[in-house]
Amino acid sequence: MRDLSSKLPRGVRRLFRLSVTRAGMLDNVDDEMRFHFAMRVAELRALGMGEREAAAEARRRFGNVEEYRTHSARHEARQAHRTGRRALMHGIWSDVQYALRALGRTPVFTGAAIAVLALGIGMSTAMAALYTTVFVDRLAVAQQDRIVIAHPLDRRGTHLDVPFSYLPTIAGDTKVVRGIAGVYHLGVQPVPFLDKGVSVELGAVTASANYFHVLGVRPAIGRLFLPDDGLAGAAPVIVLSYRAWQRQFGGDLSVLGRTLVMPYTQQRARVVGVAPAGFAYPTGSDAWIPLPADTASSTLQVDIVARLAPNVSIDAARAQLLALTQRANPFAQALAQQKVTANMFQIAGVDMQSFAYTILGNTRPAAMALLLASALLLLIACVNIGNLVLVRLLGRATEIAVRRAMGATYTDIVRLFGVEQALIALAGGVLGLLTALGLLRIVSVAVPAQLPRMDVVSNVSAPLGAAAAMTLVAILVFGVLPSVIAARAGSYAVLRSDSRAGGETHSRRRARRWLVSTQMALALVMLSGAALLVRTLAHLQSMDLGYTPSHLSVVEFTAPRSDLSTLVKMFDVAQRLVTRIEATPGVIAATPIESEPFKGQSLFIMKLGAAEQPESERSHDAFVPFEFVGPDYFRTFETPILNGRGFTAADTKSSGNVVVINESLARQLWPNQNAVGKQLHTLDDTLWSVVGVVRDTHFRDLKRVGPVAYFDWQQVQPFWNGFVAIRTTNSLAALLPSIRVAAHDVDPNLVLFDARTMDDLLAAPLAQPRLSALLMTGFGVVALLLSAIGLYGVMSSGVRQQTRDIGVRLALGATARDVRRLVLGDALRVVGAGSLIGFVGSIIAGRVLSAQLFGVSPIDPVSLAAAAGLLLTIAAVAAHVPARRATRIDPAVALRNE
Amino acid sequence: MSGDANDLLHGTLDLLVLKTLSWAPMHGYGISTWIEHATKRELDILDSALYKALHRLEDAGAIATEWGTSDNNRRAKYYSLTPRGRRMLRAKAATWKSYVAAVTGVLDIA
């Protein structure tokens, strides 16, 4: 039953780690039993029993011996298993303890490595989470790739918004579309609804009743629009966005059924439902109101939202829609009323974009560039720390050799070092996740809602998966690889008589220098990209807008519609209001304007052309943005009059029709001629004499200027939207009370609804450039620091290796200056190579970023020079420390040590 | 023997073993004689059952084992109470006392 090994003394078996067999395990049990029987028998015999009798009594008292042995064997096996597991756990724990001690001996290295990793992991995790949420996650609509947004275009590419009544015509073309809806073309409009007497401002959008049905949106709670909601005379309803529901109504379920009142029109709308999270089209929508299918709204202009039939490509649909609009002109009905021929409104093309593109389109390249930058950053961070780790581990070559000699296997060494790196990565990963959460928090709080899908950013859950994945990558790149290299190198390094501890082969050193050069190149690419974006932002902020934004404000008034029922009455109220405001102390000038700034060049447009052109060419007339303005418009905006004059109080309904045009329109209508004195005609054949030409302004669109025609509102007496632009001597806030009083004096029902300074209004179009510049600069600076650390590492180890050479040089009479030049020259070669690659990379990066740039060439010498200058400065600082150490080498000590 | 009765018996034996070891570490035979003395031989416990109880308690982490030398200079396996065993003893003793009090209370009613 017993094998040979079990006959050996126990100590010997343990010493040679011979396996403990099942029979062997029972040895202990049997020993214990033997002892027990011996004691029991002795006890019984002391009581006077005979030998045999005592043995029998002892066995009886013990019970079934064989059953007990079987039981014991199982118990022993369990115990052995437990002991083994405890030993393994103990092994890992001691590895961790050893690693902690080793890391504790180099707190600067450990701290730096963890900080760098945390930054790298944090930034890239946050970017990945942002990108996924904004660009990858599906929009909250059904089959989003089937949905398109379409606009007919005129000859000059101006967007035309079709009348609401035209939608059924398109819907009839069932081969192309499955459903067609419309959104009122003015988009999101802030409305101060009253909820049980409490004011709640919501960005409201008017859309056709089938809007949600066409998009395939499902409600978060309640219902969305029903077909009946669009019938003339239907009870008015309103649907809230998820974000508005959460933020303005605290996610209260009882919001359903509540009635919101528009205070000035006294229109009431019942809240029937909430749209799902992540659905806020048009961007910034808080609430949707159905567009009734009555005669009043039939001429309202809408953006076309269409669901294409399956298997119809966007190109095919675009062609079909163009053919349809040319067959059945969308404006025919409207034109019939204005007694002009449809020929004048020829549709020259159709702009049709996918839903996703419409929402995200121009921000995607910027986001992609930032995501790429953050990924590069993480890579640099890992490579860099890998480099530092390698140097550190190679410095422990003696330790490795000793361990190998003591019997540690190659795997033991890798595991030992791997645990150290894994601990750093773990700490970096945890801190990185916290960094990412912090960054996301900052983004969701600091970034205005004007950017697409910022409504969902605050819903981003902790990007645990991404952080874990990045940490894992980090462990692989900088933990395992250097450990393997070091273990392999270290195992024979010390045995070579010529090698010094920490020695590197020439080829490995060259590889490390190239790595640092690559980092320098990447840092330069990011820095120059950041410089381009910063210069773009600076240019946008400081450029000549054609008007002076400081001390300029736009205020909005509103009044119950019934009160301003007639155009004449409204115009009268507006005129008296502007006069009163201008008379207020602290106001320099004021003028009515058509709308807030930055609404684009497709709203408030009219067809006009040079009066002298032949009748046959009138269909070529362009759509031109117009402004109906007061006599003090140009004084209010401080827009320079280049030629002729602005409006005066003498321009009235009874005097001759006059118009002021901007440079672009003058060039367009009368290239190379003096426009003043010419005449232009509008669609209704009225003639207008050009009395002045003014500077182009960045008012409709921050980045582009285009033609604008200014009409004197006293001559036109148009519908007034409630906007007044005011130039003040000081801050607007101080004037608001007196402006409120002025409005009340003019008409008690007139209410100051909104007041914003031009600087506030400029924040919206600047939001995205500002965010891009901020993020890219952050990435660039981190990349720069990382590459500086890399340079420092490679230079330091270089100096350490060349100690003997430098010692010899110093002994032979070289000065400290020579030595410094030697080291710095070496650093310059590394940095120079990196800069050269970086220059090429920067030029490519400029190309990639070109869509984001404004007023800056993609190959901008200033940006490149600034980036390169910063890089060289930081590199010089990083290389200076090892260079100084080199000059302090004591030749005698250096030579003795070798 | 039903499972419940078995559990009750096991529990009683475990409690006695733990109590015995609460004075000092002891070998199996020592535990056996100590329990015999303490119970005045009222309980007839098979030695194999006692050893099984020791294994059970070792599995539960209540006692630890170590080979040592007995009073008469023989190699013997010594059992000692672990901190967990000490806690187990306190808990089991309290349970036992309240159990006994409850049963006694019921029987005294008659």
Indicate the topology.
The complex is a heterodimer of chains A (898) and B (110).
Chain A: H1 10-15, H2 22-46, H3 51-62, H4 65-105, H5 107-136, E1 147-153, E2 162-163, H6 167-171, E3 177-184, E4 189-195, E5 198-208, H7 211-215, E6 221-222, E7 237-240, H8 242-249, E8 259-262, E9 267-274, E10 287-291, H9 295-298, E11 301-308, H10 314-327, H11 332-338, E12 349-354, H12 355-360, H13 364-394, H14 397-405, H15 410-446, H16 454-457, H17 464-493, H18 506-542, E13 552-558, H19 567-583, E14 587-593, E15 605-610, E16 622-629, H20 633-637, E17 641-644, E18 658-662, H21 663-669, E19 679-682, E20 687-694, E21 709-712, H22 713-716, E22 723-728, H23 736-746, E23 751-757, H24 758-801, H25 803-811, H26 816-849, H27 861-887, H28 891-897
Parallel strand pairs in A: 5-10, 7-9, 16-21, 18-20
Antiparallel strand pairs in A: 1-11, 1-12, 2-11, 3-11, 4-5, 4-8, 6-9, 7-10, 8-9, 13-22, 13-23, 14-22, 15-16, 15-19, 17-20, 18-21, 19-20
Helix pairs in contact in A: 2-3, 2-4, 4-15, 5-13, 5-15, 5-17, 13-17, 13-18, 13-24, 14-17, 15-17, 18-24, 18-26, 18-27, 19-23, 24-27, 25-28, 26-27
Chain B: H1 3-21, E1 26-27, H2 28-38, H3 47-59, E2 63-69, E3 75-81, H4 83-109
Antiparallel strand pairs in B: 1-3, 2-3
Helix pairs in contact in B: 1-3, 1-4
Key words describing this protein structure:
heterodimer, A: 898 residues, alpha+beta, 15% strand, disordered N terminus, B: 110 residues, 3-stranded antiparallel beta sheet
What do you see in this structure?
The complex is a heterodimer of chains A (898) and B (110). With 898 residues, chain A is an alpha+beta fold. In chain A, 53% of the residues lie in helices and 15% in strands. In chain A, the strands form 4 sheets. Chain A has a 6-stranded mixed β-barrel with strand order 4-5-10-7-9-8. In chain A, strands 15-16-21-18-20-19 form a 6-stranded mixed β-barrel. In chain A, strands 1, 2, 3, 11 and 12 form a 5-stranded antiparallel sheet that branches. In chain A, a hairpin with a 4-residue loop joins β8 and β9 (267-274). Chain A starts with 9 loop residues before the first helix and ends with a helix. The relative contact order of chain A is 0.10. With 110 residues, chain B is an alpha+beta fold. Chain B contains 4 helices and 3 strands; from the N terminus they run αβααββα. Chain B has helices spanning 3-21, 28-38, 47-59, 83-109; strands spanning 26-27, 63-69, 75-81. Chain B has a 3-stranded antiparallel sheet. In chain B, α1 (3-21) packs across α3 (47-59) and α1 packs across α4 (83-109). Chain B is globular, with a radius of gyration of 15 Å. The model of chain B has no long low-confidence stretch (mean pLDDT 85). The interface between A and B is medium-sized, with 21 and 19 residues.
